[in-house]
């Protein structure tokens, strides 16, 4: 069994009620999939097998068990009111039976064997409108207006957020002035970090 001493330390520091839960999960995961390895990510234990498999965590009043591919795993899963797919675990009895849990671990490993990854929801950003004072300032410079009109919504958003998120009027005014200047030069908000085109020296042509 490939264990990580950091996981030992994590369990040792857990609340008394949590230690048997964490130990039970740990032992069952290793028994179900002998090739599992342990690590610590985001300050709590994770089990890996050809990628992320599952994780467990202990809190003041409950524990949690989370499968990386939980969104597509079938099994005896409770309606989660805590991190993980099994709700708040306060005793070992709150977990599914050993047979069910072992089956889930094996299914999760099989998904990793097949290279199947969990689907992550992509949250689209809501459209954002430039304030009237910003549009008025841009309109006063024809080159700036032309650049702004040609920009994609995301490129416009970069400037809008930069100006509107200023903490003071003075900062906002400075940013607005810079915005108009950079737009008149055809520059995006993050032009300083853009990859510059490679120029071949005349002597090498």
Strand line-up of the largest beta sheet: 1-2-3-4
Number of helices: 7
Calculate the mean pLDDT score and round it. 86
CATH class designation of the largest domain:
Alpha Beta
Distance between termini?
Answer: 62 Å
CATH fold title of the largest domain: Aspartate Aminotransferase, domain 1
CATH architecture of the largest domain: Alpha-Beta Complex
Segments where pLDDT lies below 50 for 5+ residues? 75-82, 195-205
Based on secondary structure, the structural category is alpha+beta
- Using only CA atoms, what is the Rg? 27 Å
Explain the overall architecture.
The protein is of the alpha+beta class and 205 residues long. The protein has 2 domains: 5-113, Aspartate Aminotransferase, domain 1; 132-191, no CATH class. 41% of the residues lie in helices and 11% in strands. The chain has helices at 5-13, 18-32, 98-113, 132-139, 142-150, 153-164, 169-184; strands at 37-41, 44-48, 52-58, 63-67. The chain has a 4-stranded antiparallel β-sheet. Mean pLDDT is 86; it is low at 75-82 and 195-205.
Helix-strand blueprint:
Elements: H1 5-13, H2 18-32, E1 37-41, E2 44-48, E3 52-58, E4 63-67, H3 98-113, H4 132-139, H5 142-150, H6 153-164, H7 169-184
Antiparallel strand pairs: 1-2, 2-3, 3-4
Summed up:
Helix content is 41%, strand content 11%. The chain is of the alpha+beta class. The chain has 2 domains: 5-113, Aspartate Aminotransferase, domain 1, CATH 3.90.1150; 132-191, no CATH class.
What attributes characterize this protein structure?
Aspartate Aminotransferase, domain 1, 4 strands, 2 domains, four-stranded antiparallel β-sheet, single chain, alpha+beta, 205 residues
